[in-house]
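Let us walk through a complete example step by step. Step one is to write down the protein sequence. Step two is to encode the small molecule, fe (ii) ion, as a SMILES string so that its atoms and bonds are unambiguous. Step three, shown after the inputs, is the structure prediction itself.
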Amino acid sequence: MQNYFSIPNAAIFDHELIDSGHKAIVDAMNEIVKAFNDDPGSECLPLLRRLDDAMRSHFAEEEAIMETVNYYDVVVHKDQHQDILGKLNKIIESYIAGDSNCVEQVHNLFHIAVTDLMQADLPLKSFLEGIGYIQKQNREPVS
Ligand SMILES: [Fe+2]
Ligand SMILES: [Fe+2]
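Step three: the predicted structure of the complex.
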């Protein structure tokens, strides 16, 4: 399957729970884009709901880690999670209402999810590395 979205190297934590959560989100997004591309009229509601589940699970797990380690920016980071869930919910509602702009909205949301959300996770990653919760990586920068 062609992947439309992927996790930037910098956003890989080398932490099983966080990385698998991000993968589940990106996998769900790729499936939705593929479904819309194959057939704009295809039944995407179960896929959208699966994405919602994947996001909620990951956010809950990530927030539990943030609480455990007393992450300094936990309130703002939780707000960002809520914000994207709200946007996804609006898309699900407009999809149910038969809004034909759904494909575009999905693309916009995914752009936000991959850029902003992953960006928001980067300071968390640095923090977790700083306290030794995860190993600092020596990855080659992606060109
Ligand atoms: Fe996050
Ligand atoms: Fe995350």
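Step four is interpretation. The pocket of fe (ii) ion (ligand 2) is lined by residues 22, 58, 62, 121 (CB under 6 Å).
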